[in-house]
Amino acid sequence: xxxxxxxxxxxxxxxxxxxxxxxxxxxxxxxxxxxxxxxxxxxxxxxxxxxxxxxxxxxxxxxxxxxxxxxxxxxxxxxxxxxxxxxxxxxxxxxxxxxxxxxxxxxxxxxxxxxxxxxxxxxxxxxxxxxxxxxxxxxxxxxxxxxxxxxxxxxxxxxxxxxxxxxxxxxxxxxxxxxxxxxxxxxxxxxxxxxxxxxxxxxxxxxxxxxxxxxxxxxxxxxxxxxxxxxxxxxxxxxxxxxxxxxxxxxxxxxxxxxxxxxxxxxxxxxxxxxxxxxxxxxxxxxxxxxxxxxxxxxxxxxxxxxxxxxxxxxxxxxxxxxxxxxxxxxxxxxxxxxxxxxxxxxxxxxxxxxxxxxxxxxxxxxxxxxxxxxxxxxxxxxxxxxxxxxxxxxxxxxxxxxxxxxxxxxxxxxxxxxxxxxxxxxxxxxxxxxxxxxxxxxxxxxxxxxxxxxxxxxxxxxxxxxxxxxxxxxxxxxxxxxxxxxxxxxxxxxxxxxxxxxxxxxxxxxxxxxxxxxxxxxxxxxxxxxxxxxxxxxxxxxxxxxxxxxxxxxxxxxxxxxxxxxxxxxxxxxxxxxxxxxxxxxxxxxxxxxxxxxxxxxxxxxxxxxxxxxxxxxxxxxxxxxxxxxxxxxxxxxx
Length: 640
Description:
The chain contains 19 helices and 19 strands. It has 640 residues and is α/β, with parallel strands linked by helices. It has a 7-stranded mixed beta sheet, with helices on both faces. A 7-stranded mixed beta sheet has the order 15-14-13-16-17-19-18. Strands 3-5-4 form a 3-stranded antiparallel beta sheet. The N terminus is likely disordered.
C-alpha cells in the first residue's frame, strides 16, 4: 500500500503545469476580471458609497431615483442579494417585470381605509356604529400610492410644532370657524396657530391641580407636575386639536388622544401634525382597542358622550381600561350646570337628570367621587374589587363579567358588566401589582410578567429583551445618520412592539413611539407596554391602521413580514406603510434576508430608496435590515 501511495505521489508531481500553461491561465483570469468590471459600470466608475445610511433632498425629479448614500468612510458597501447568474436556458422562466405603483387620484389624499366616509354610510347609525372600523374587502383595496396634498411641507420640529402647523398639510378651516370663540386654533397666513396649546390649557390645568390638592390626602399620587409621579398614561377623548395632550407631554404624561372621523374635520390629523399621539376611534359598540388596566387617567372635556345611556356601557368601558386607583376627569356638560345651563341651551331639569344618572353609574362601578369644583368633577376607581364584589349582593347591576378575556379588544363587543380586577388578598393591596413611579417603571419588571400572567415569559427574558433593544437601537443610530440629527424624528411607529423594547430604548430622545401589537401573534404583551409607561394599540396589518396619511416620521417593522407570511399580500402591508409614512420618512425593516429581497423588489416600485445592510452581529446572521427613505412628491408632480 505504501508503494502505491508513493507511485501516486510521484505521478502527480510529474504532471505539474508548465510556465506557458500558468501564463495562459493568468491571461484568461485577467480578461474575465476586466470584462466583469466593464459589465458593472466601466473602468472609470468610482467605488460604491460605503454608508448604510440613506439621505434624501428636498425634492426628487426622476421616476426611480437611485439611493443617495452618505459617505462615512470605513463602513461596509451596500449588500446585494440579487441573483447575477442563471443556468443555461433559464431565461424562459425569468421573473416578471417589476410593478410600478401609480399615485392615487387627488380625492384620496386624506384616505383612511377603515374609516372611509363613503363606505361608513352603508352601516347602522345607531350608537354611531357607522363610524367604527369598517375595512375594505380585497376587491375594494386601493393599489396605489396615497399622495400628499399640493404644497405639503415637513412639519415643524418639536416643540415648535405644539403651537404651529402648515395649513397646506391639513387644509381644513372648519374648526377655526366652529371654535373661534374658544381660541383653540386660528389661521395665520400659510400656518395654523394653536393658542390653546400654550395659554388656555395651562390656566385650566393649574385650576385642576389646585382642586386635586384640595381633594386628595396624597397629592403626590395625582400631581402630574412633580417629576417622579405615578400618573403617566392619559386617555383623552374628543380631542379637538389635542392641546390638552400637547401640554401634558411637557410634564412627562403621555396622552393617547382619541376622536372619530366626523364633522369636526381632522381632529386626529391636527394632533399628529403637532407631534402628539392620537388615533381615530369612537365609543360605539366595540371595545376600545386597548387591554384592561392600561391608563392611569381618562379625561373628557366637552366630549358630549352620553355616559348615562345604554346601561352605562361607555363608562363601564372606561372602567375596563383604567388601572386600579385610576382617575376619571369630566368637565363640561352637565358639570356645573347651575351656572351654564342657559349657555348650553338646555333645561335645568334635563341637565340635573343627566348628572344624577352619571353619578349613579359611577357609584355602581364602585368609583369614589373625590371632588367637584367649578367645571370639573373627578372620580377614582378602587385599587381592588374586594368591597365591590361584596356590594353586588345589594347592587345587582352591573354584574361582573365572567369567562370574558379582559384584554380582548379587536372587534370585541362591549358588554354591560364590570371587568374584574385580579384577585387581591387585602383591602390595601393594588390588584395586579403596584407599579413603580416613572421613570423606574420603564425598566422594572412589569407586574404582568412578575406575576406569571403572560405564559412562557419570565423576568429574565424581559431583562434580556430590554438589553437587546438598547443594543439594536445603538446599531440603528450608527448606520442611520438621521438618528443623530436633533428633531429629525418625532412620531415613530413600531409595527410589532412585543414588550416595547424599541420604544424604551428611545425614551430619552424627543420623540414618542406608538407600539402596535399584532393580533395574529402574542397580543397579551400590549398590557406590558402600558405597564412600562408607554402607549400602543392592537393591529392586524392585513387591514389599514386607524390613522390619517402622513402620520409617522419613522416606521420600525421587526419580523412583521415573517409573521404575516401567507396571511395577506406583501404589498398590502407595504402600501399601508407608505400611506402613513411622511415624505422623506424612514423605514427600518428587520427580517430574514430572503424576505427582504422580495420586499425590496416591491419597494423599488413605490418611489422608495432602499438598501439591505447587515445585522448588528455581522454578515453571517440571516436576519438583515432593509433601510428605506420615502421620496418627496406631492399632487401634481406628474414627472415624479
